[in-house]
Design a protein that fits this description.
Layout (H helix, E strand, L loop, with lengths): L1 H4 L4 H4 L18 H14 L12 H20 L8 H4 L2 E6 L5 E5 H5 L1 H4 L20 H14 L8
Antiparallel strand pairs: 1-2
Helix pairs in contact: 3-4
């Protein structure tokens, strides 16, 4: 896992191209995070992951939260940026439904803000692989994340 998280280039870590709608079946677009821990777990667990009910499966939900945690760790713990390319940021995902079954869509740009808008992971922050005494405090990590979001660094890329 460290070799994946140590990859500085987003195009290798996250994605080699902007995926078509059915990105689950487009291997050419998969970066190391998608191709390795994400797809391996889906293949290992098996079953129908393409249906609208699959996110209600606790294993599916936990697996995708772990992938998000790894992405947050790559972004914040390793101090890296997501791409700023408008084609990537404006990519719209339309295959979702709200709690009432109505079609909804979301964009990559909105998803890039999830770490600031939602979950906080205990093991994300400078030194998270080190001993607990070397970890950044939650308050300091939140302040850093807020500064990074306000500066636009969440969606800026050096690649």
């Amino acid at each position: 896992m460290n070799s994946i998280l140590d990859e500085p280039n987003f195009l290798v870590f996250g994605s080699t191209a902007i995926a078509a709608t059915d990105s689950q079946r487009t291997r050419a677009t998969a970066g190391r995070l998608e191709a390795t821990p994400h797809n391996y777990i889906h293949n290992f667990v098996n079953g129908d992951m393409g249906g609208y009910m699959s996110p209600l499966d606790p294993i599916f939900w936990l697996h995708h939260n772990n992938i998000e945690r790894l992405w947050v760790q790559w972004t914040f713990d390793r101090d890296r940026d997501n791409p700023a390319d408008r084609a990537w940021l404006d990519r719209e995902f339309t295959e979702f439904c709200d709690e009432n079954g109505n079609p909804v869509s979301t964009s990559v740009a909105f998803g890039a803000l999830y770490p600031v808008l939602s979950y906080r992971y205990d093991d994300v922050g400078p030194g998270s692989a080190a001993s607990p005494s070397a970890r950044m405090t939650r308050k300091a990590a939140e302040e850093r994340d807020t500064r990074k979001a306000q500066s636009g660094a969440l969606i800026r890329s050096e690649v």
